[in-house]
Amino acid sequence: MCVFCEIVNGNIPSTKVYEDDMMLAFKDLNPQAPVHILAVPKVHIDCANDINADNSKYVAHIFEKLPEIAKSQGIDSYRIINNCGTDAGQTVMHLHFHLLGGAVFEEGLV
Length: 110
Ligand code: 5GP
Ligand code: ZN
What we know:
With about 110 residues, the chain is an alpha+beta fold. Helix content is about 20%, strand content about 25%.
């Protein structure tokens, strides 16, 4: 079972900031910004390549909730990042969205 499935199951501890029946959001172990939250679906999806008509409701749900999660962390300006595949820097093969904020970032990422 993957690390984030273990976190969803409670077998690996995490600092949860939001949870419901479809998703979990918790603090990144190695934060890259003052606010660095990971939002994951409660079902295992390897990466963005594997989003389909059956599971896209989890992704939509996460994006519905991210603004209020950001607000709960005291930010209303943020980046949402997804790395898909090892060449893109994905290290945990369970779909997740990085919510980064609390800092002033360089203008434009790409
Ligand atoms: P990726 O590089 O796959 O997009 O991001 C994986 C993220 O998961 C990294 O930012 C890393 O710090 C975080 N991470 C890896 N293992 C754990 C863990 O066990 N707990 C938490 N909270 N974060 C983790
Ligand atoms: Zn998983």
